[in-house]
Specification:
- By secondary structure, the protein is an alpha/beta fold.
- It has a single domain, classed as Alpha-Beta Barrel (TIM Barrel), CATH 3.20.20.
- About 40% of the residues lie in helices and about 15% in strands.
- The protein has 9 helices and 10 strands.
- The strands form 2 sheets. An 8-stranded parallel β-sheet has the order 8-7-6-5-4-3-10-9.
């Protein structure tokens, strides 16, 4: 069962759990592993964001730095702001009611993006790579996505593997600790969504037990976001790459999206919004039947 939440954002709230919300990705980077820098130009990025909104995206997630495995050289906050702020401003000029998220671990970028009108800060580090991020979030009222990452991108290819039965407990323990840390710093619970961080410090096959057990993360008492789109562990499962066969990549993405929703994800973060909206509608219909069946069985047992 997928619990219901109200996700408190900077100027509004979103209902989570009645249906799956779709977060569309726009990478304003020259080196993203997933889209090859297609939207590095600000005008192209704005056009892509508006296209994703028209296709049914509930949130647009803007990122200005790639976190691909093996990456060592960080983008400066000044450069990151130079990339993302014109895109945020351009989107809001043409779609003033759009809900925009900034994908950054830098407090300086997050602060500037919030001033420009974003509603959500999505930090892949779980608010631990920048000491000023939590104090910033504590004094704002924006929504927050707290993601689990094991190590840093430059470490991912060399860090020791995890036994499959240790992946979920590790993610649960770390997310519990990070969420409590955020709340102690002054970030209220109703502002936080948790992301298990598929591909972030998990080796290829370590992601499948995590995907199979997303529902266990409901024990933590927060809404859940799943970001599996175009991840390499899915390409490996199909024995194809996106360059060789884009249809196989898309099929793998939709399988992972459906699995995430049936495991109780409230939000899915994706590149391909239009097809995801359709897949999510079907998965939501199945999930609603499962919930009614569960509740009916529960009521029958209680009546005995």
């Amino acid at each position: 069962m997928r619990p219901l939440f109200k996700w408190k954002l900077r100027t509004r709230s979103l209902t989570l759990g009645e249906r799956t919300l779709v977060m569309g990705i726009v990478n304003v980077t020259p080196d993203s592993f997933s889209d090859g820098g297609q939207f590095f130009d600000a005008q192209l990025a704005i056009a892509q964001a508006l296209k994703l909104l028209a296709e049914g995206a509930d949130v647009i997630d803007i990122g200005g730095e790639s976190t691909r495995p093996g990456k060592k050289d960080a983008v400066s906050a000044e450069e990151e702001k130079r990339r993302v702020l014109p895109v945020i401003e351009g989107i809001l000029r043409q779609a003033p009611s759009a809900v925009i998220s900034i994908d950054t671990y830098k407090s300086e970028t997050a602060e500037a993006a919030l001033a420009a009108g974003v509603e959500i800060v999505n930090d892949v580090s779980g608010f631990i790579w920048n000491d000023r991020m939590l104090p910033l979030l504590a004094k704002t009222s924006c929504g927050c996505v707290l993601m689990h990452t094991r190590g840093r991108p430059e470490d991912w290819r060399t860090q020791p593997p995890l036994p499959s039965d240790e992946v979920v407990p590790l993610v649960m323990d770390d997310l519990t600790r990070l969420a409590h840390r955020a709340m102690l710093a002054g970030v209220s619970r109703e502002r936080i969504v948790l992301d298990p961080g598929f591909g972030f410090g998990k080796r290829l096959d370590e992601n499948f037990p995590l995907l199979a057990h997303v529902a266990e993360l409901h024990q933590l008492g927060f809404p859940l976001l799943s970001g599996t789109s175009r991840k390499s562990f899915l390409a490996k499962a199909t024995a194809k790459t996106s360059e060789v066969d884009s249809s196989a990549r898309l099929a793998a993405d939709m399988a992972a999206v459906t699995a995430s929703i049936l495991q109780g994800a409230h939000v899915v973060r994706v590149h391909d919004v239009k097809v995801t909206v359709g897949a999510a509608s079907v998965a939501d219909a199945i999930a609603r039947i499962d919930q009614r069946t569960f509740r009916g069985a529960e009521e029958s047992l209680l009546a005995k």
